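Hi everyone, sorry if this is the wrong subforum. Our group has a chain we'd like a structural model of before ordering constructs, and none of us has done structure prediction before. Sequence below.
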Amino acid sequence: MGIKIKNVYDKVVSPENLYRSAHRTLLKGLRYKENGAGWKLRLEYHINKLHRQLSDLSYTHGKYQVFKVYDPKERTILAASITDRVVHHALHDVIEPLIDRKFIHHSYACRKGKGQHAGVKAAKAMLQANDYFIHLDVKKFFYNIHRPTLLTITRRTIKDEKADRLLAHIIDSSVKHAFYSPVAASTQLSLFDEIPRVNATGLPTSERGLPIGNLTSQLLANWYLNEVDQFIKHELKHSAYIRYMDDMVIFGNQAKNLNRVEKEISAFCNARLMLSLHDSGGASPYHHGLTFLGFRIFRDHTRVKSASVARFRRKLSYHIHHTDYRTKSGFKELFARTQSWNAHAACADTWHLRSEVFGEYPVTEFMMKNRFKIKAINRILQWN
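Answer:
Right subforum, don't worry. Here is the predicted structure as tokens:
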């Protein structure tokens, strides 16, 4: 019968869960912005209002703000209001641990204890054990998710009528409400945020597409492609397989067999999920190296993609010349950006590369050599 989710709605809409969700929503700097600060100032009022609306089923999703980012290429983002984000968090935090049990071990996107670097490590182990691989990905994944099919999938598991109603309302929220006018372009995404490709407008159609930017969209997208995971593992009986959102890699020792498996996966995605896969070009031998999650993976070593290195060099140069790192706030901002990429690149064989990149700027070289000596740094820069 599988996992069934029942009697969870009261937990989702409880004041305690809404307060926790509000706290998590306002983390990462949002609480310092004008709208976040104003929302937090009236936190009790907003939570009580949300609890009342969710309890009596009068809650309606608000409008989205539409804007574009250009990192590394143009993408259209739909941003919900703070109130709606709190609701997304409240629902996600209750059902995600239950849904996660349905996922296969080698699904690595947006899951606790998994993630990008764990996925790279697992892919390398599979590459070492197999002679060939095929890298698959979905054409315009988030934009092409078929919402009626998604609801059919979620309703197999969610047997709480009120929770199902709220989830369906969020899934269809982007087409049932008018959009704000697009705002100025933004490039303030994290260096490693991975946002799926979208079409020219980036807006969902009457039956297809999830709002890119919603927390719930990440869980729902994983849930949607779990159908592919189960098909590969249990119907095709192919165990050497890994997925990170819509990036899928199958491994094997016979190229002909892998090409057959790819055709079956493509046919399944078309017929059951209404998704199309990019042409992979067929099976590749292990010595060609696997490009996956921003890395070039070989049996005996791993590299960071050259495009990622070039992008970080440009960003680092920009921040070096536009950040006053002699101030406490400026130094901490530059240190955070530098250490973030350092930790990312350290997952590959990049000691010489990192030494070269940071060696170009004395301040970043100093940061890396003294990153565990924050008190010493404070004394050197004579901060109060």
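For your construct planning: The two ends are 62 Å apart (CA to CA). Confidence is low (pLDDT under 50) at residues 180-201.
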